[in-house]
Design brief:
By secondary structure, this protein is of the alpha+beta class. The chain is 36% helix and 13% strand. It contains eleven helices and ten strands. Strand 1 (114-115) and strand 2 form a beta hairpin. It is globular and about 60 Å long. It starts with 16 loop residues before the first helix and ends with a helix.
């Protein structure tokens, strides 16, 4: 287990700048991208980081723009003038930002676009697509049926982020850029090995399994991606396995910062389900774990406790 400082977790830790940076820094990221993320974080270090997605989209958008302006290596992100960034981000609020096409081209030219040979997106391409997605939350299952008209595209998260960033940079003091620092977050994977990896909802505790229903004993987080691996070597992603939530689970189990990298061997890993807020403490959010002594599914006594809960509701 890596030697990491113990930290006190609170609600803000689940949405902190260092955690959001780690979600943008996969091990495959090129050096110009890492520099762009850290420079973007310096601009946003003093902004409020709360329990919503706005700040993280702002960080993503500014990182992508800085990368698009510096990936060729002719300058570093710190050399891009604030006025240049403001001009690029200042777009009409009823239109998608002009930077979308520029970022698209930059990622493709840098080898960070869609990989047709592997038939998969690179992590940076996935990050970009999530920020520019104009159908997020608009495509339900019924909308995909043949007899249902698909919804019209809406504003992307990047559109609002560009507006917020332009407002920030419009009167950004030049001296602030030299004085502000961001957390030092290195790119790299987080790997957890455990005999008991479980997804926790408000009313259930589910052992994590692979597609072939074999027990999962390894979870890996690398940038925005989280994957699971069973003893048979089956590796896959799953909708219930979110990178930020795995990082928060490790932070709660070890006391390390949510942005930590390295390999951990844990007796148990309790990962909060996507049905619960990211900052939820699984031992407080789940009915079977709440209190001083609680069995976990798979331990002796759990059925007795379930019976007591049911009896108490009658």
């Amino acid at each position: 287990m890596p030697d990491n400082p113990m930290v006190k977790l609170d609600g803000q830790s689940a949405y902190g700048l260092d955690l959001e940076m780690s979600l943008l820094l996969p091990s495959s990221a090129p050096a110009p991208w890492c520099a762009a993320v850290h420079e973007a974080a310096c601009f946003l270090a003093d902004r409020p980081w709360e329990g919503d997605s706005r700040a993280s989209v702002d960080l993503t958008t500014l990182s992508l723009l800085l990368f698009a302006r510096t990936y060729a290596g002719d300058r570093v992100p710190r050399d891009v003038p604030v006025a240049e960034l403001y001009e690029a981000l200042d777009s009409p609020m009823d239109q998608e930002p002009r930077i979308v096409d520029e970022i698209d081209r930059a990622l493709a030219e840098a080898g960070q676009g869609y990989d047709p040979a592997a038939m998969r997106s690179t992590p940076l391409w996935s990050i970009f697509n999530a920020a520019r997605d104009r159908y997020a939350g608009r495509l339900g299952g019924s909308a995909l049926a043949d007899d249902v008209e698909p919804p019209a595209p809406g504003p992307s998260p990047m559109r609002a982020a560009a507006g917020r960033l332009a407002q920030l940079l419009a009167d950004y003091p030049a001296e602030a850029r030299e004085q502000t620092t961001a957390p030092q977050v290195a790119p790299g994977p987080l790997v957890i090995e455990s005999d008991r990896i479980q997804i926790v909802t408000a009313g259930s505790i589910m052992p994590l399994r692979c597609l072939q229903n074999d027990p999962v004993r390894t979870v890996r987080v690398d940038g925005p991606e989280a994957t699971k691996e069973c003893d048979e070597g089956h590796i896959s992603a799953h909708w219930s396995l979110e990178a930020a939530r795995v990082r928060m689970a490790v932070a709660r189990a070890t006391g390390a910062r949510p942005s930590v990298q390295g390999r951990f061997e844990l007796q148990e890993l309790l990962i909060v389900s996507t049905d619960l807020p990211r900052h939820s403490d699984p031992r407080q959010a789940n009915v079977f774990l709440r209190g001083p002594e609680h069995p976990v599914v798979g331990r002796d006594g759990v059925f007795e406790q379930i019976g007591r809960v049911i009896d108490g509701r009658r």
